Amino acid sequence: MSAQLISVATMARLFSVLLLVASLQACVSPGTLANKPPGLSAASQELFALIDQAEEAYRSNRWKDATSLYQKVLVKVPEDPYVWFRLGNTLTQQQQYNQAIYAYEASLQRDARQSKPWINLSTTYLLGAQLATLRAWEAMGENDPARATVSERLNTLSRLLQ
């Protein structure tokens, strides 16, 4: 069992190094993760194939597929901040704001020096507030005295999100 834990830890470190290299290239391009070191185990090759699939779904805006694939990757490497970040992005695209917030926070717990998850976390909070305020607006009657306040909040949130 300890040999299995070591190989997972080694695989996670290898994955993190490869993601760092990819991020230094400005963005992850198709095939970036395809340049894998020789001699990877079958489990590592499987993991890289899963990552490639997740990245392709992400680039193609197939948010549900990307979400599912990133979740599968996280089962294998739960400590990777990049995968948590990408999962947060896919969930935000699907208006699953509470889950996205959880993913961004998980990313930041693993590496708080990242700026993008902080930015996306704050934006997702605002999007969630906007959605909740819009639902309040829709539930109100036309003569509700709070309607003016809710309208003002919606305008403020819209300005913040521009």
Spatial shape: elongated
> Quick one: how many beta strands?
0
What are the segments in which pLDDT stays under 50 over at least 5 consecutive residues? 1-34
Q: What is the helical fraction, as a range of percent?
A: over 70%
Largest sheet: none
State the end-to-end distance: 51 Å
What portion of residues belong to β-strands? under 5%
Number of domains: 2
Characterise the protein shown here:
The chain has about 160 residues and is mainly alpha-helical. It has helices at about 1-25, 40-60, 65-75, 80-95, 95-110, 115-140, 145-160. It folds into 2 domains: about 1-95, no CATH class; about 115-160. The chain is about 75% helix and about 0% strand. α4 runs parallel beside α6 (about 115-140). It is elongated and about 70 Å long. The chain starts with a helix and ends with a helix. Residues about 1-35 have low confidence and may be disordered.
What brief labels describe this structure?
162 residues, mainly alpha, single chain, disordered N terminus, 0% strand
Task: Write a brief caption for the model.
With 162 residues, the protein is mainly alpha-helical.
